[in-house]
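Hi P.,

Sorry for the delay on this. The queue was packed all week, but I finally got your sequence through. Input first:
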Amino acid sequence: MKPDELLRIVEQIHLERHIDVETIFGVVEQALALSARKRGEGLDDSDVDIHIDRSTGEIYAYRGGIPIPADEITERIGAQTAKQVLIQKIHDVSRDLVYEKYLPLVGHLVTGEVIRNERAVTLVRLPDVEAIIPNSNKIPYERFRQESRVTALVDEVRKAGSKVKVVLSRTKPLFVQRLFEREIPEIADGTIEIVSVKRMPGKRSKVAVRSRDPRIDLVGACVGVRGARSRAITDELGGERYGGRQFGDRIDGERIDVVPYSEDPDEYIKAALKPAIVEEVILCDMLGRAIVLVQDEQRKYAIGLGGQNVRLASKLCEIDIEIMTRKDLDKMLDDATEAFTSIEGVSEDLANALVEQGFLSFDDLSVIELDDLVALAGGELTEEQALKITDRAEELALELERQEKERRESERGQNGDSNKPSPEDGEQPKE
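Then the structure:
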């Protein structure tokens, strides 16, 4: 390889692949040395070293620190072998540079250009790499137009042969968090902190926030003047730009609820269930459950469309939330007390103690800790008696489940398979 040709190749690789010149010279030296070693007979990998003059392109070779004559260098270095090794090493260096560039970006936002949509993925052009958004990482209903710009979260970066695989996601809760950090300066500078994000992609997200400064209006800061900040986030989450859901003449993106975090579980649950107005929160610590009482007209708002509101609130507050009216609760308490006293060994006082702790069904009773059951009985039960009670509760729970299954099958047989079940109570999309 002639010196001027070598310098031209190094410059070309530098310009095309944006690899540091010194790195390229190092790779070329390694490639030529490997080629020379492969051509030698009876030589190990430490026998030949190559050095290239950075200014002239002249190649110098050494065996054990002793210079090798120029004619022997030419003989040792096979042009085709050197070219193959050089290409492979350049690919490896390029891959490693891309990997090192994108690995720190995992969990952060990037914006790229849509190359094309394939059956299972969308290809996105990022600097130095083609990333993918698998269909499972797309928000339901959204569509990407070719050559349009798309923002996503870097979900995974890994080496795959001679390439780097960058996987993007638009469905992770962290995606919503990063959008909040991007759009809301108070979050970006740490004045407001995001505590938790729970999400149903394309439908609804709940974002819990707090601040050390009590003077800050958390919801107002996150929503912005006339909803400008929250609208920018909502538009990015499957709105009109990405072919969001159509409601009449309006296209809705994902709904965002900003929830002020509170150390008080009652207040936190009430805030998480908005826009519903909550009358009372009853915490059942033994079951990890909260019974939330609302007026009858508020029930549909507390549950939400398809159960979205209560499910996300349960996840956000990390407690199982049950929505009831006062009338529903009173009936359940009476039914549970009567049902529990039908089990041998359960006195009326124990049944009352159980329902006060939120145990409202045989299924609930079957999972109580034996120590807790003995304690609620005031020490009047042995552990063996407590075990008999929980075993009996489990039997009765399974029997009720079997009866309910038979009832549903019977109704389906009478009404025909064409009848669809009625939808759950839920709020209507905002006008």
